[in-house]
């Protein structure tokens, strides 16, 4: 029989609630403030640059097309 006076461990629940609250506040800031909109644009720009660079490297390795030419092509495909 289980001891009714033994405390249960709720640390996972508390950590989950704290992470959820933090994520909600962060998403609220990103989508509800002007500064958050600026930050989203910066994140989006950096992400597009990273994808374009990665795609150009893959094209360079898998084909005979140089990375410079592939970068121009990937930049044209991934527009702002």
Specify Rg, calculated over alpha carbons.
Answer: 23 Å
The gross shape turns out to be: elongated
Instruction: Note the total helix count.
Output: 3
Structural class: mainly alpha
Most strands sheet: none
- Please tally the β strands and state the result: 0
**Oligomer category:** single chain
Question: Element order, helices and strands?
Answer: HHH
Low-confidence stretches: none
Distance between the amino and carboxyl termini: 64 Å
Strand-residue proportion = under 5%
- The helix content is over 70%
- The mean pLDDT is 90
Question: Layout of helices and strands, plus pairs?
Answer:
Elements: H1 11-32, H2 34-62, H3 67-77
Helix pairs in contact: 1-2, 2-3
Structural overview:
- Keywords: Membrane, Transmembrane, Transmembrane helix.
- It comes from Mucilaginibacter gossypiicola.
- The chain crosses the membrane at residues 12-32.
- This is YtxH-like protein.
- With 80 residues, this protein is mostly helical.
- The chain has a domain at 34-79.
- It has 3 helices and no strands.
- It has helices spanning 11-32, 34-62, 67-77.
- Helix 1 crosses helix 2 (34-62) and helix 2 (34-62) crosses helix 3 (67-77).
- The model has no long low-confidence stretch (mean pLDDT 90).
């Amino acid at each position: 029989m289980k001891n009714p006076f033994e405390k249960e461990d709720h640390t996972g629940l508390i950590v989950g609630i704290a992470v959820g609250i933090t994520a909600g506040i962060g998403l609220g800031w990103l989508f509800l403030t002007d500064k958050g909109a600026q930050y989203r644009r910066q994140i989006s720009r950096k992400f597009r640059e990273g994808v374009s660079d990665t795609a150009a490297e893959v094209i360079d390795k898998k084909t005979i097309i140089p990375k410079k030419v592939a970068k121009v092509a990937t930049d044209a495909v991934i527009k702002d």
